[in-house]
Amino acid sequence: MNAMKRAAAVLSALAALFVAGCSSGGGDAAPPDHGSSSHPDDRKGNGMRGMTLPSWNTDDYSSPQAGIYLKQIASAGARWVVFTPTWYQDKVTDSAIRTTEETADDSSLRHIIGLAHSAGLKTMIKPHIDLVKGGDRAEIRPRDPDAWFGAYERCITHYADLATATGVEQFAVGTELAGTSQDGDHWGEVVAAVRKHYKGPLTYAANYDEYKKIPFWRDLDVIGIDAYWPLGDKATTDTARLRQAWQPIAEELAAFSAKQGRKILFTEAGYVSQKGSTTAPYSWTVSKRDGDAEQAAAYEALLATFNGKPWWAGVCWWMWDDWPDAGETAKRLAYTPHGKSAEKVLRRWWGHG
């Protein structure tokens, strides 16, 4: 999900070895494959039980609210939390990438990783690259690829070093960079460089319409997909209908996982609590009408569809609460499930209901 909050509009629309701890959701035994089962006794949720806590300012992760959010996330049944430090570039054709006042400070990132571990949560760092004036990071197509990838490698290995130093359990080498991700040679070099700095499991967070084009999945440990597939052209709270919409997608993913010899992790998935959210899960601004029930139905449908699938590595939901005074979307309409019916769905599936 494009992290540029000021652009709050539509965003970028089985391996023999697998990630230690990821397939077990942080120590939780995976249940048998019940397929379409949705009985409460089956709702222990295999795979990563993750929640994303993005940052929008330098000191978000060191703010007093950080520890509160992490306790809430753990209380909802999550076992993983994802952090998203973001660097920026001015234009899609530029080669320079830099920090800004919206980039999480390294000390704040170290601080919140420590807090997460103290709260019993495993962690993943998933760095983002965004555009200073807003826009879709998938449109980044540098005029000088060699220079851009050199700058990107410096950025990503910086966080790989930080991940190693802080005991981060998983790391993403990139997020939704569809304008560059077909460049297998350069990305192969990026992955190789990251492995010199970080020895844990690696993924890349491909957008749902990007993942089939990635040439370097076999260089990674798990396939990451930001799962914002539209599930219909009309608003609905009918969970059965949403699950039916997921079925052909699930069949495609199962086949892709088998072909690549890697499990698939939903590095992001989420729905605003707005009427019509299932028609455009990637948009912050589907409507101004309350969609609490539709958001909850979407959470239920995703978990009921994929829970127990042997090739599925879990989900990292986008996102928990916004930081005080940072949100441009009212909480009642935003992606957060906190305090909404969707949180009750998570608690049932994740054993905290």
From TrEMBL:
Pfam families the record matches: GH113
Superkingdom assignment: Bacteria
Keyword Signal: yes
Signal peptide, first to last residue: 1-29
Keywords (A to Z) from UniProt: Signal
SUPFAM superfamilies attached to this UniProt entry: (Trans)glycosidases
Region (Disordered): 26-56
Descriptive protein name: Uncharacterized protein
